[in-house]
Fold this protein.
Amino acid sequence: MSLQSHARVVIIGGGSLGVNLMYHLTEEGWTDVVMIEKGELTSGSTWHAAGLCPNFNGNHTLSKIHDYTIDLYDKIIPAKTGLPSTFHKCGSLRVGYTELEEQWFRNVMSRAHNIGCEMRWVSKEEAKAINPVMNFDSARCILYTPNDGRVDPTSVVMPLAQMARDNGAKISRFNRVTDIITLPQGGYEVITEQGNIIAEHVVNAAGCFAPEVGRMVGAHVPIINLEHQYLITEDHPDIAALVKEMPVTRDSTASAYICQEGNGLLVGPYETRGSKPWAIKGMDWNFDRELFAGDLVRLMPWLERCMELVPLFKEVGVKTIINGPITHTPDDNFLVGPVAGLTNFWNMTGASIGIAQGGIGKYMAQWMVHGQTELNMASLDSRRFGPWADKKYCITRAIESYERMYASASPTENRPHGRPIRTSPLHTVMAQKDAVHFVSAGFEKPAWFKTDSVREESETWTHSETHAVVAEECAAVQNTCGITDISGTAKFRVKGPDAYAFLDHLSCNKLPTKDGRITLTLFHAENGGIMAEQTVSRISQEHFVLMGAIGCQIKDMQWLQQHVGDYQVTIEDFSEDWGGVLLTGPKAREILQTICEDDLSNNAFAWLSCQTIQLDSAPVFAMRVSYAGELGWELHMPVWQLISIYESLMQFGQPLGLRDFGTRAFNSMRMEKMYRAYGAEFTEEISALEAGMNRFLDLSRHFVGSENLLQRQTVGLSIQLAYLVFDDQIPAECFGNEAVFANGDHSGIITGGAYGYRVEKSLAFAYLKPKHCKAGQALTVETSVGTRRCHVELDPAYNPNNSLLRS
C-alpha cells in the first residue's frame, strides 16, 4: 500500500502488542490508524514465542490483563471471525517445594478470586492424573489453573490484524521507520523508507528495537534483550497415547516450563545463573526473524532436573532448539503509557511474555482515547523509570529478572542488583547505623534498623524476625520521638501570577487561602480517575510547594506541564535538590527547640502550617504535619545541609529518647491513622468519592474532573473504600490484591495493609461493595496463610480525634 500523508495514530512495530493495540483502537472508534512494520507482522520476538498464557501473575493489574487476553484468544476472536479457537486450554500446574512457595501460592490464589479465575490446590495424586508423565513425589504444594493454556502467536495476531483492517486501520509492511521529527505545531512526522506520514499520536511498539525508536525523539526506553531458549523433542509414544493434552507445568527446582508439543515435549528453562544479554550496544536494523545457535550446554543443569521430573524426556531426542531474543525491563513489568517530556508519544513495549499480555491493547486504547483506563496502570507506566535507570542498571536488573523468573516472591525480599542508584545524603549515615534499605523507584529508603538481637530477615509472607524490631521503633515514636529520612519525595515548585488559579483548576480540594497553610488534595482526570496526590503548601498567592510520591515524580511533573495552557506559571522539579527528615513524637517540639530559636508553640506554629525556620545556622522549610499521627514536623532543606541538621537533632535528641525508624514502622503508623496512599488506595480507576475523601473534595467549584465526580455522585458508587480491623491474631498481614468476602460472597479487594503496633491489631484497606462498608460488617480475607477474620471500622484505630497531632 502507498503510505498516506496523515494519520491520527501511527504504531511502529507489528508484533503481538502493536497489533492488539491497533485492533482495540479501532474498536474504541479511532479507525485512522497506520501500523508500520519493517518486516512481516510478528517478525520480531512474537513469531518465535512459546505462546504460554498463564493466570499466575504478580499483581491485580497483570491478572486482569492476562484474564482478558485468554478471553480474547479463546472466545472473542472466534466469535468475531467465525473461525474455531486456536487456544489450547490445557490448563497449568505450578509446583512448589518450600513453605515460602506455599505462602506465595496462597497469595496468588487470593488474587485470582478477584478476577473470577479458577485456581485451586491439587494433591500429588490429582496432579499425576492431570499430568501422567511427570513425577510429583517431592512436591510440597501444587497449584492447578484449568483455564490456562497456550496458543500459536501467529494464529491470534493475524486475525486481530485483519479485523483491524476491516475496521479501517492500515498496515505498511517491509517499511522501516528511519526517523521521527517532533513538529513545532504538535504531532510528529514519521520518516519511513516508503515516504513520510504526519501523526497526532505515535506509539513505540517496536519490541527489541524500541530503544532505537525512542532515541529518534530523545526518549529513554529502559529495556534489555536476553537470549531465551526452549527445545522441542522428537515424538514419544506415551505422549501420543495421552487422551488429553498435558498441562503446562512450571517447576521452581528446574526453573522451567514443560508442556506438550504435538506428540513430543516443549521444554523451556530460565537459567538461574549464566543468562546471556544480547545487543547491549544496540540493535542491527537488518535483524529480522532470526534465531541464535542453540546452546544446550548452558541449559544442561536445568534440563537434567527436567529429566528427573519427566523421565520420558531422557528417552527422546531433541528435534528443534529455539533461541531468540526476549525483552526485559528492570522490574520485568512491561512499559506502557505516555512518554515523559513528550505529548501524544506512547510506549507499548518491553514485555517478556508478550503473547500472554497482548490484551493490554484494550487498556492502552482506553488510555489513548479517554485519557485513563479501567485498571491501575502504575506498575506498568513507563514513567516509573527516569534517566537514573541507565544501561548498566537495566542490564543488571534484567539479568536478575530473568534468572529469578521461577523464584518464589515475598514482601521481605530485598535483592541487591543495580543498587544503590538513587540515594539521600543520609544513606551512608543510616547504613553505618545498621539501616536495612529497601528501594522505591530506584530510591533507597531505610526500612528498619538492625538491633543487637536481630541482624537478618528471612523471606516470608508471615511475621519475620523484624516484627519485634519495628514494634520498638513504633513505641519510640509513640512514647518519646522518632526520626526518619523522607528525602525520597517528589517535590515541585509552582510560581507565577496564575499559580493559585492554575492549581485551583487541578485541585479537587480548596487551596489554602492564607500564606503558610497546608492542604492535602487530589488531581483528577476528566473522567474522574485520581491522577495524583499532592500536599500543597502555600508560600504566597504566587508561590506554592507541592510534595508527592517519589514513584510518581515524572508522571506528576508531566501532568502539571500538560495543563499549563495559558496560565502564567513556571513549574520546577527540585526533588533531587532537597532532602528531608520527619521528626515526630510527643517530645518532637522539645527536641526541635534545642537547635531552633523560633517559636514552635501551637499558637506560633499550628498544625497544618508551614514556615521557614532557622535550625543551627541553616534556613529549613518546616511543615507541621506527620503521617505517623503524632506531634511532628517535616523538615526539608538543600541536600548539603541534611547530614549536619540530622546530627544536631540526634545529639540533643538521643538523651530525650530520639530513635531512628524506617518505612516499615511508618507504614504501620499511617495505617493506624487511616491515611490513604497513592498507588494503593488512590489509583486512576477510582475517584475521591470511592476513596472516601469527601472532606477533601469541594464540588461547589469547577476543576478538572468535577463534572464526572458530580455524575458519579448522582448515579451512585459501585465500590467504596473500607477500613478493616482484624479480629484474630494470625501473623500474616495483607499486602494488596487479596480477596475479601462477606458471608462467603466475594465483596472486593485489599489495597494494602500492615500490623498496627500501637493498637496491636492487623489493619487493611479494601475496596468493597458499598453495602458492606458499614461499621461492624464482618468480613474474611484470604491471606498467605489462610482465612483471616476482620470487620469494618469508620474511624482510625489510633487517636481518631487527632489530639496528638494538634498537641
